[in-house]
Each structure stands twice: as C-alpha cells, then as structure tokens.
Amino acid sequence: MTERKLAKLQAGQRVRAAFGVKYLADATQSPASVEAMEFLLEIGPSILLSCGTDWTLKVSEGRWPTLPAWCFPVESWAFEEISEIGDPGLDSIISTSDIRNSVGEVRGVLLEFPLAWVSVRSGEALTWDISRKES
To answer: Residue 12: left (phi > 0), alpha (psi -120 to 50), or beta?
Structure first.
C-alpha cells in the first residue's frame, strides 16, 4: 500500500500564484461565486481549498491546470487569478493557523507571508482577505 501525504499549506512553502475556482452563474443571477482557491506551489502539487457541504474547509491536492472533478459541467466553471498572491512579499509562507468554529471544526486558514496575512474562510462560498502588515 502506498502512503499518500495529506495535502496542506505549511511554513516554508513558496507560492507562485493563486486562482479562484468560479461558478459562472447565468446573466440573470448574482455575480459568479468562488467555490475554491488553488495555490500553485513552487515545488510539489498545487493545493486546493474548498467549501464542504457543512461549510468546513476542505484541503486537497489540486489538479492544476485542470478544474476539480466536481466542476460539472466544465463549461460552467473557470479559474480566475487572484492578484497579489505569489508577488514578492506574498510568495513565501511564514506560518499557518487553522480558523475554527465554536465546536472545533476547521472553517478556514490564516496564512502569514512577509508582507501580509491572508485568511481564507469556508461558507456558502469561499472568501479571502489580504491584510497588509504595517512597516
């Protein structure tokens, strides 16, 4: 039996870029929602953060540049680059911390980079926030 390492973002990893996985809603609906975020690492497979049906954060190995298998039909989904992540100062992970709900389930992750913190949270859709560090 082959042992498979659990996919995760961790200190010391270098991020080349990040992409949102968006569902392309009908023109009559609200704007396209982001259902996942894929981090392209300098070394190793990409890491996919997505929303579980219970709103917990799911972390898995990505399939870049192929959309996740649950993106069906494929023509209703697209990648969209997330600006800043992968740029100098937002490319080397210093630390990571889980964000948990009141019963201890992982609902997000806080990533520390040299110039900012990036929080990614699961819910109806995936959300993220980039908070710049003061110099």
So the answer is: left
Q: Would you give the distance in Å from CA 55 to the centre of its chain? A: 14
pLDDT of 130 over the 70 cut: yes
User: Residue 54 has which token pair?
Assistant: 């219970």
Q: SS3 for the chain, per residue?
A: CCCCCCCCCCCCCEEEEEEEEEECCCCCCCCCEEEEEEEEECCCCCEEEEECCCCCEEEEECCCCCCCCCCCCHHHEEEEECCCCCCCCCCECCEEEEEECCCCCEEEEEEECCCEEEEEECCCCCEEEEEECCC
Residue pLDDT, tens place only, 35-76: 999 999 999 999 999 999 999 999 999 999 999 999 999 999
Q: Does the pTM exceed 0.85? A: yes
Q: Which token pair is 80? A: 């969209």
Pick from 105, 132, 130: nearest CA to 119: 130
